[in-house]
Each structure stands twice: as structure tokens, then as C-alpha cells.
Design goal:
The protein is mainly beta and 393 residues long. Helices cover 7% and strands 38% of the residues. The chain has two helices and 28 strands. The strands form eight sheets. It has a four-stranded antiparallel sheet with strand order 1-2-3-4, with no helix packed on it.
Length: 393
Amino acid sequence: MTRLRPITCALAVLVTATCANAQQGQPAVGATVPPPEAVVAEGVPPIPAALAEQVGRYTDFRAAVFVDWHPTRREMLINTRFADTAQVHHVKMPGGARTQLTFYKEPARGGLVRPKRGDSFVFLKDVGGNEFFQLFRYDLATGDVALLTDGKSRNTGPDWSHDGRLLAYTSTRRNGKDNDLYVIDPADPKTDRRVAEVEGGGWGVHDWSPDGTKLLAGEYISANESYLWLVDARTGDKKLVTPRGGAEKVAYDAAKFDHDGTGVYATTDKGGEFLRLAHVDLSTGRHEFLTDDIKWDVEGFDWLQGDSGCKIGSFADFEQRVARANVPVRFHIPACLPHKPHRPDICRPPPAGVKESTGHWSHAHGFSVLSSQKNTRKSLGLCFAAQRRPFTK
């Protein structure tokens, strides 16, 4: 029988322990973190790899971001990551497990569910971070994924028509720089067509009219100047909604058609310092402001037409402006014009640790505000802030 010398035994034990640590994802005993090649470290003591592993829980966190509701069922799509990139996940019920649907090296962005039917969704993905995003259709029944765009140009801003038949988006396909407007039936990629040629890369689609004949488009010039346009979805004819010229430069951010298509709701800094929610009459251009009492930007809004008429849910992310103060996120729910809006009727603080708040109508279940992001390795799920009910764990 061969005897191992003591030093050989010690080396064998060290190698075994090192291999065990490596298999468990732990740093080797005595390992240090090397400085980056571009950094010259003088007089800096070695940083143990074990210490870097311990503080990782404070420097690495995962966010769960709401993407879209299912049109008929109490289900949602979210973006979150379990590896290195965010992917699309499906949550079938409140408190239910998240089922990963996409598996790519690059992030799968968005996930807009087809209205009315809910049989598919559209997401964006680029290659290697080049930001030349392509649109893909994911079939929820089969898991099949189909490329909708040309694979070369930059395609952004997909938006479904309300009946779920068509999808509008912008693309640089024509000349590599201008964001032209396109329309496609995602179930048949051969229907893809350019609706309108535009100049500039700041164009995007805000919304479809209720009857599916017009697009509400935005032309972004700068942070202080942007315009709203009506575009005929069949002919491509364009009409400027917010006139150019004048001493005041005006910005329009979020925008949607109202319930009958005779006007649009938009957030704008017209006549003021902050973005306010306004209703713009398309025949007269008159602005009626709904949130004069909010003294900072309205971050966004959404609306739902129910049996008793239309309601608007507007909200502002106060936490970005009042440094880490536990101030409430406010929800204004005024009635549809021409009824006068009433004062805020919901005012509740966000859950402890919440960094961001956004609001979205579920057309099957009413208005809900969803929040995410905690500085911890445990992912924070999305919450019904108004009802204080967690949707995901």
C-alpha cells in the first residue's frame, strides 16, 4: 500500500476543498478580486473574494416590471431576470408562480398581449446590444416565435389597435434614419406595409383611434418641444394637432384618444412649468387641464370605458421629487369630459421599500397600480397599491 506524504495529503485536501467550493459557487479559499486592467492600485490591500461575495446581496438586485394584462383573464406578463438578462414571464393568478416564456442571451423587451383574443404577444429584441430592435410574435398556445420585421432596421414603439387586428410601429427601414410609421397584422407578416413617411428619428405611435382608422403619433424634437399628429392608418395622410410656431415651445409626453375619438388626453407643459394632464379637443384645439393642483410632473395616465362611462386614472411619482420621503402616490379619477373632474379620491403611500410606481388599467378588472424594485436579491413582486394585495411574491 502506497503512503502519501503529509504535504501531499495537505495539497489533496486543499484541492478537494477548492473544488467543492467551486462546485457550490463559492470563491476559493484565499482568492482575491483583481483590479480592472485600466486601474493602477497602489497601497490598496487585496480584496478577499469572499467579502465581494458577501456584499453582493446589497449591490445586485432584481426588478419585476409589469408589461401588460391579459384582455379577458386575471393574468399578466412581466419582465424580470433569473440569469443575466430580463425575459418575458407569465403570471396566471395573484400570488402565482412566474413562468418564463422567452430564453435569449439578449433581453426580451416588452410583451404586448393581443387585445380581445389574448392568444399572442409582441416583444422586441436586438443582438449584442446594438439597439437595432426587431419585433417578434409569441404564440401563447404553441410557444412558437415569429420574426415580424426585416432583421436589419431599428423598429420600436409597437401599439395594438383596440380590436387586436393590427399593430402599428416605427422603423428606420426606408433609409436608416427616419422613423416611418408601419402597420402589420402580426398573424400574417406579409401584410407589413409603410403607412407614412416622416422626417426625423423622434417619431412614435401613441394610440389607435377607437374605430381603428387613425393613429395618434408624436414627433419629438427636444425635451422642450414635441408635437401630436393624426395619421390616417389607410392613406398615411397627416394632420398636425398641436400647431407649430409661437414664442412658447411646448412638450407633449403621454397621449391617448378619448373614448369617442373626438379628442385626446395628453400630458403637456403647455402654459405651465410641469407636465399636466389635459384633454385636447381635436376640432378646436382647446386644452382643458385636469390636474392643476399637482405642482410637479404627472408621470402618466390610463383610462377605461366602463358601463357607467369613462374614467381617467392619472398619477404622479412623488418619490422622485421628494427625496426618499414616505409621501403618497395620488390617483385622480375624474369623470369623462364634458363632466367636470372631481378631486383626488385615493391617496395612499406606496409599500415600504418601493422605488417606482406605475398605473395600468386592466380592462377586465379595473384600475390597478403596480410597483416593483427592491434593493435585495429577493425579487419584489408587483402589487395592487390601491388594494394592498400582492400579485406576485
